[in-house]
Design goal:
Elements lengths: L2 E5 L3 H10 L4 E5 L5 H6 L3 E2 L2 H4 L4 E4 L6 H8 L8 E4 L5 H10 L5 E7 L14 E8 L3 H11 L3 E4 L2 H25 L9 H13 L4 H9 L4 H18 L1
Parallel strand pairs: 1-2, 1-4, 2-3, 4-5, 5-6, 7-8
Antiparallel strand pairs: 6-7
This protein binds NADP nicotinamide-adenine-dinucleotide phosphate.
NADP nicotinamide-adenine-dinucleotide phosphate (NAP) binds next to helix 1 and helix 9.
């Protein structure tokens, strides 16, 4: 079996691991020690040096940490590794991987459009965006995602991805945060539309603050969509 390391064993790294352990020898490294959690998930705990020697390296840390991490550690990265990121924005991490990874590394950007909440009953049929960057292995990654993980694969460039995600995530997570701050409640007399509104809050309101900041600030198109939304709210209020 090929060796695969998960760098960043936070919410998403821990969620991802069990989907990979029957296909790869999975190793993990994290700044905070989650060795016990790794053991529970049948993942081998590794030093950073050893984790970066594996055949496949999946970067699951926050995007805010990407540049410093790649700058500091690119010399430790297996020069023949396939390096994959899972960040919720794509232009920024892809540019950083191209800039800092050894030129012999293969690079694929991905964005799993699911997480612990939406994938709690399984990931079959869920959307998985793949941005091939510098690789001869696109076909095998797509085949693995489709056949082994049963995901719905969507191929996009990083720019196409970020433009769509400015609405799909930038707008939705923005609304979810506001609904959470307002503490909108469950009511007996709810309508289907209100149930959907509560779903937005319940699905997304619990994501980490760092993830929210990344979705809003690291996507170059998200601010414009938020501004449009706020302007339309203002116009509606004026009409009322
Ligand atoms: P998270 O729970 O906040 O975990 C963040 C990870 O980054 C942790 O491993 C954290 O280490 C590490 N990290 C942050 N700053 C660091 C620093 N300065 N030095 C070293 N390590 C640092 O976030 P997450 O939800 O797992 O998100 C991780 C990635 O997955 C993001 O790129 C996100 O866009 C992507 N993603 C998440 C989801 C989701 O539903 N959560 C879905 C799809 C994609 P510590 O534990 O030591 O803080």
């Amino acid at each position: 079996m090929k060796s695969l390391s998960i760098i960043g064993f936070g919410t998403f790294g821990q969620f991802l691991a069990p989907h990979l352990t029957s296909h790869f020898d999975v190793y993990a490294w994290n700044r905070t020690n989650y060795e016990a959690k790794a053991k529970e998930l049948c993942v081998s705990w590794n030093t950073l040096e050893s984790a970066l020697e594996k055949d496949i390296i999946i970067l699951c840390t926050n995007i805010s940490f990407f540049e410093a991490f790649l700058k500091e550690n690119s010399r430790l990265i297996n020069p023949h590794a396939l390096v994959i990121d899972v960040a919720s924005v794509k232009i920024k991490p892809v540019e950083l991987m191209k800039k800092y990874l050894p030129s012999t590394c293969e690079i694929v950007g991905t964005h799993p459009l699911f997480g612990p909440q939406s994938g709690k009953n399984g990931i079959e049929g869920l959307n998985f965006v793949v941005c091939p960057v510098r690789t001869s292995k696109s076909d095998s990654i797509v085949t693995f995602a489709k056949e082994a993980l049963k995901l719905n694969v969507i191929l996009r460039t990083p720019e196409e991805h970020d433009k769509e995600m400015a609405y799909v995530q930038g707008l939705t997570h923005f609304i979810a945060r506001a609904l959470t701050a307002m503490d909108v409640k469950e009511f007996v007399m709810k309508t289907r539309a209100y149930e959907r509104l509560l779903d937005i809050k319940n699905f997304l309101g619990g994501d980490s603050w760092d993830l929210f900041i990344s979705i809003e600030n690291d996507n170059p198109f998200a601010k414009e969509v938020r501004e449009m939304f706020k302007m339309e709210l203002g116009k509606l209020e004026e009409k009322l």
